[in-house]
Write a structure and sequence with these properties.
Layout (H helix, E strand, L loop, with lengths): L3 E10 L2 E11 L4 E5 L6 H8 L6 E4 L6 H7 E4 L11 H6 L11 H13 L15 H14 L4 E5 L7 H16 L3 E5 L3 H7 L2 E6 L2 E6 L1 H4 L2 H8 L1 E8 L2 E9 L7
Parallel strand pairs: 3-7, 3-8, 5-6, 6-7
Antiparallel strand pairs: 1-2, 1-4, 8-9, 10-11
Helix pairs in contact: 4-5
Bound molecules: adenosine-5'-triphosphate.
Length: 254
Amino acid sequence: MTLLMLSDMCCTQDGRQVLDGINLSIAPGEFVGLIGRNGAGKTTLLRASLGLIPAQGWSSLADMSVRERARAAAFMPQGREIAWPMPVESLVALGRIAHPDAASASDRAATEQAIAALELQGLRHRAATSLSGGEQARVLIARALAQDTPLLMADEPIAGLDPAAQISVMRLFAGLAAQGKAVLASLHDLGLAARHCTRLILLDHGRIVADGPPAKVLTAGHLAQSFGITAQMSVGPEGMLFQVIDTASSQGAN
Ligand SMILES: Nc1ncnc2c1ncn2[C@@H]1O[C@H](COP(=O)(O)OP(=O)(O)OP(=O)(O)O)[C@@H](O)[C@H]1O
């Protein structure tokens, strides 16, 4: 079973090739971290996969009707702008909009579960626009979670969260995967990606240069070539431990 399949996906922006021949499939049980330098193409890949921007090639999600897609995949975008000062609980409940039984007991339960999972109980009556950046990010993750889709896609979901909230969201995503859903999230924190993701996809100049378990992707060669860094890696009780040491150029690795 596949929750997302991309076949030879290419995308051009402003006459420049931003994605080049992307092939991948994501199955239930996977927590996939999409990693790569700024400008590597991570946001473009997520948006093109969902059919939000035009692309060549084939995406299993982009081909669906809007309603079908809303039940197949939830998306937390990178832009965190919340337009209206609606209460947090109403904004999270918007995740249920594609479900036919909106406002039913099961819908309310899904919203409540998402509010609890992101520890938003104390903020539920606040206007979402009045929250801090990190609090707004948690609200938008909760809205995506409330959608209760087999696949959750998130663009830098832990950016701007405090360390405890980052770990808690990564554990939440790993838990969704363990329950048989799948998560595809772009991430810049390679340490958290190494520890919590089941699989990493490394993008470089719009191409997939590595795809596999964290230990196979976060090699010294890939880190130097794609990120320009050196790092120390070891295996700890909670999985792989990863610490950035220096830029590769200052070690003479470039
Ligand atoms: N609408 C656009 N018009 C022109 N160029 C674009 C557009 N959108 C993206 N790009 C370019 O495409 C490349 C990939 O951008 P993208 O946002 O996908 O990168 P990213 O890997 O998500 O980066 P970051 O880690 O900084 O968020 C960048 O060089 C960017 O400047």
